[in-house]
Design brief:
By secondary structure, this protein is α+β, with helices and mostly antiparallel strands. It has 2 domains: 72 residues, no CATH class; 68 residues, no CATH class. It is 21% helix and 13% strand. The strands form 3 sheets. Strands 2-1-3 form a 3-stranded antiparallel sheet, with no helix packed on it. The chain has a two-stranded antiparallel sheet with strand order 4-5. Strands 6-7 form a two-stranded antiparallel sheet. It is globular and about 50 Å long. The mean pLDDT is 83.
């Protein structure tokens, strides 16, 4: 969900048009390729060789431009990354990812619940084991508007509560 204007030079999402059709072939051909180190096995970093492979297959990189309120939906098998802005426009968006709850381990659900209850940031991947800091930085120093809890605690309806994954934690 885009929250600020995001034009062609403002940085942000870039996707490789048509490459999702080649995802299985790409990963088969690059199975033995040395991987760029990552904090989760869900992430795949593209090497120069991989980028050239996509170009040779006729895939084109497209910068996604969006206005506030625009919702961008795509299959994460589409090669994508973020560009650095060459303008002074800030980038502000919300990333969301959904997968079937049966694909998330009980351990991950417990960690997600704990993160939700303590208001610690996580990745947008429901099954990734990476947690981050809530400290926003401004020019290299903590933003003076930081807080460790929201002004108001979230009030979730039944659907919102289910989307946290908490109801799917099995009791021992």
């Amino acid at each position: 969900m885009n929250l600020l204007p995001n034009g062609p030079n403002d940085g942000g999402l870039i996707v490789c048009r048509g490459a999702y059709r080649l995802s299985n072939q790409f990963h088969e051909e690059f199975a033995d390729e040395e991987k760029i180190p990552a904090w989760t096995n869900e992430w795949f970093g593209f090497t120069e060789k991989g980028m050239q492979w996509l170009a040779d297959k006729g895939c084109e990189w497209i910068k996604v431009c969006a206005e506030p309120g625009d919702l961008i939906v795509w299959d994460s098998r589409v090669p994508h990354y973020n560009l650095t802005s060459t303008t002074s426009q800030n980038r502000f968006c919300i990333y969301t990812c959904y997968i079937p709850v049966e694909d998330v381990s009980q351990e991950d659900l417990i960690r997600k619940r704990d993160a939700f209850e303590t208001r610690v940031s996580t990745t947008y991947w429901p099954n990734a084991m990476h947690f981050g800091s809530n400290v926003a930085m401004c020019n290299g120093t903590p933003d003076p508007h930081n807080r460790d809890k929201p002004r108001q605690a979230p009030q979730l309806d039944e659907r919102g509560y289910k989307l946290t994954g908490i109801p799917y934690i099995r009791q021992k």
